[in-house]
Amino acid sequence: MQNFEKKPIYLYRHTHNGRTHTVPCTTSLMYMSDLEEARRLHKKVATGLGPEIFIPTTGDELESLLGGKGLSVGVWHAGRLVCMRSVQTDREWVDESLRKMGLDPDPRGRTAVTDHCVVDKEYRGNNIQFLTNYEIESMIALNFDKITTTVAPMNVFSLQNILNINFQIIGLDPRYGGYYRYTLVKSFRSDASIWTNGHHVVPIRDVERQQYLLSHGCVGYKLKRVHQGFVIFYAPMSVDAPQGMRHINQQSRRMPV
Fold it and tell me: Which residue has the higher pLDDT, 256 or 240?
């Protein structure tokens, strides 16, 4: 794993009185000594959010992430943690998480799982989710081939962020007590391409049509806000140019909205 020194980063902070100003922050790896700050930030971010949007990482899981079974990057301002991004890297833990996502365990142990990314609301709008993801990827890409995660359909801001960093939707099913979650994956090394000439635009509320497209070799790759709400762009993903997409287009369009 590459060395990761503290790095300066300058972010906007939005305070309750309407003030927005630039503040000096730092990014760094996190360790067990940062556990209390991790717990504090999780509690602050999770306040008021139900499980249909966000299920916070438990205290025991935070200990595992900071104690060697994962990797965490933090963004700090004035000694307080304002953003934390973590991935699970322990093989047994990753395999358990993959099973919960409805995926097969990786026999080669080359898959990591995004556990969470939480941001203090005063520092949102700085693309910290984008920046911390690439910090994490730069450290794990030599030892892992892909990274997976789940996002709630109702959490459109996190979904937008995760699609912006080139994850693809590969599943949409009830998880975590019956709440729907998108399953997404990003491969660091893959011969497959997304063939966007045959794309489909599907309302985010249309679960049945999305599941149909996913079962026919398509992935979700883009989220867009339109007058009626949010839509997701789907397209086939394969090594070779897909055949028979016209048939899938026609069948998809016949499905009820």
Answer: 240
